[in-house]
Design goal:
The chain is α+β, with helices and mostly antiparallel strands. 24% of the residues lie in helices and 21% in strands. The protein binds a DNA duplex through loops.
DNA sequence: ATCTTGACCTGACAGC
DNA sequence: TGCTGTCAGGTCAAGA
């Protein structure tokens, strides 16, 4: 599974930013009320009939600006997906009908036709007929295109907020700096970790310190920086914090590069995994050899979260 | 103020 | 086969 974190959300954003602006929303169908929290009257007056003007991102939250003066905030959480299907064409079909997502041998023939663009947690829903049982909200555009918000576990959400109040919205108020922005400096990270007794991994997952890191990239960055995830934040040396700072930027940047290619192409049952996990350093690689030293990757719990480490590269003491 | 824990939710999978 | 239990994991709220 590939849970949407900052790189995945950024990849979806950049894909949708090429497709949605200029589109006008004709209708909204809410199949699960809690997936789109907005009064019925607001959906009618501020979404339906509005044009999309921009698609932005802050942390793991996507912001779709509308010409009505409102914005749609989207959090995919673990299992959310956004699938855009271009109008007037048949929906895409899985390559061979197999149930195994990685076994389709046909990765290129259907690539690049632009009929469907999808991103988020990968499942068969991205390639099969939509709507399906995980579809929670459907946006229909005037040209017949559709945008499906699918979410198996229904933790994800969309909400409608006045454009002028987006930055002050509750979900952004406590959000920390963008790790790929200029404000993310070593001294910032140092000040956030100082005097903190919590595990460094727990601190990295706290969105108020750095926005957008999740379980995958926290593990990846800590391994690259050679820091054990259970270490207390305050125990890290300046040098270790510098390594961690650089590692966060590198793993996020690498992943955006890897994900960018898989998103803009046609998504079929073969392509839904994304490229980054194939190159993961430790995530979901327990039992396999560390790419740096060959030691067997271990899986432990840190703050109730599954955590992957190389016991040789990442020492506790 | 900081830290920990449980709840939310569904599907996949292991074990009996 | 079919049941039960466990795991996945971002975020919030409640409790320590």
């Amino acid at each position: 599974m590939f849970v949407p974190e900052l790189p995945e959300v950024e990849t979806i954003r950049s894909g949708l930013a090429e497709l949605l602006p200029g589109q006008r929303i004709a209708g909204v169908e809410v199949l699960l009320n809690k997936s789109l929290s907005a009064p019925e009257s607001h959906i009618t007056t501020h979404i339906a009939g509005a044009g999309v003007t921009d698609v932005r991102r802050r942390g793991k939250i996507m912001i779709v600006d509308l010409s009505s003066g409102y914005s749609l905030l989207v959090h995919l959480k673990m299992t959310g997906q956004l699938v855009f299907e271009a109008g007037g064409q048949q929906p895409a079909k899985p390559g061979t009908g197999t149930n195994e997502p990685h076994s389709c041998p046909n990765p290129t023939s259907e690539t690049g036709d632009g009929r469907r663009v999808a991103g988020g947690h990968p499942t068969q829903s991205m390639a099969g007929d939509l709507p399906d049982k995980t579809t929670r909200v459907i946006f229909t555009f005037q040209d017949g295109s559709k945008l499906f918000f699918n979410d198996q576990r229904t933790f994800g959400w969309m909400k409608l907020v006045e454009r002028s109040k987006v930055e002050r919205d509750k979900c952004f108020m406590a959000m920390g700096v963008e790790p790929l922005g200029s404000q993310f400096e070593v001294c910032h990270l140092k000040s956030r970790l100082k005097h903190r007794k919590a595990a460094i991994k727990t601190l990295l997952l706290d969105q108020s310190h750095v926005a957008g890191l999740g379980n995958i990239y926290a593990d990846e960055a800590l391994h690259l920086a050679q820091v054990h995830p259970s270490r207390e934040g305050q125990s890290l040396s300046d040098e270790e914090i510098e390594r961690l700072h650089a590692a966060i930027i590198k793993v996020l940047g690498d992943s955006i590069q890897a994900g960018g290619t898989s998103f803009t192409s046609y998504v079929n049952a073969n392509g839904i995994t994304g490229d980054y996990l194939h190159n993961a350093r430790v995530y979901r690689r327990q039992g396999e050899p560390c790419r740096a030293c060959g030691t067997t990757i271990d899986k432990i719990k840190v703050g109730q979260r599954g955590t992957h480490i190389c016991p040789n590269c990442q020492k506790l003491t």
